[in-house]
Amino acid sequence: MPDEGVVTELLARVRGGDNQAKGALFEMFRERLGRMVSTRLDRRLQAKINASDVMQDAFLEYASSLPTYLANPQAPILLWLRVIVGRKLNAIHRAHLNTGKRNGAQEVPLFRNSWPSANSQWMAMSLAGNEPTPSGIVAQHEQAEQIRSALDQLDPIDREILCLRHFEHLTHVEAAVVLGLNKATASKRYLRALARLRSALPQ
User: Following CA atoms 122, 128, 132, 137 in sequence, which dihedral angle do they give, to the nearest 10 degrees?
Assistant: First the structure.
C-alpha cells in the first residue's frame, strides 16, 4: 500500500510542474487499479480486451484531468482514480456488449458513480488458489464453483465490500466512502459478509 507521506510529496511535486512525479504518482496505484479492472471486466471480454489498454486509457484521462482534481480535491486520489477507471470499464462494456441502460435493480452506488460489479467467477478462482497438478486443477475448479455459488448468494453490497477489501486492498475507510456508508456500518457489513460466505460454503 502506498505510503501517505510519499503520495503527499508526489502531489506537491506535481503541483510544482514535475511531470515525472505525475507518472510516478499513477504508478503507485497501478497495481490496485489493475485489480479493479481484473475483478470487474466481463468474462466475455477478457479474450478481447487487454487490461493494460484500459489502464493506458485511464492514465491519459488522469494526466489531462489532474490539474482540475488538484484545484479542488474532494476525495483521496485513489478513489478519484477509481472513478476514472470505472468510467473506462463502463464505456468498454457498452461498446462491446451493447449494455445500453443498465438494470437499476442490480446497481450498487460506488462513490456517486456506477460501474460493473465484482466478478464472482474471478473472485472464486482467486480464492480457490492455483494447483499445478491435474488432480489439483480439478479440485480447484470444484472449489471455485462452490465459492462462486456462495458469493452469488450474498447481497450485492456485501459481495462488493469483500471485493474492495480483499482484492482491491481498500481500507475500511476507503471502502466505506466507495459504498456510501459510514465506517462503522461498512465494518459490520464486511464482517457479516465474511460470516455469510463461510456459512454458505460446504463444511
Answer: -90
Which tens digit of pLDDT belongs to each residue from 12-34?
999 999 999 999 999 999 999 99
**Crossing angle for the helix pair 77-97 and 19-40, nearest 10 degrees?**
50
Alpha helices in 153-201 (DSSP H): 156-162, 172-179, 183-200
d(CA 17, CA 199): 53
Please write the tens of the pLDDT for every residue from 106-139.
444 444 446 677 778 777 777 776 554 545 555 6
Nearest to 118 by CA among 144, 94, 154, 91: 154
Residue 170 to residues 18, 130, 165, 180, 188: CA-CA distances in angstroms? 28, 24, 5, 14, 16
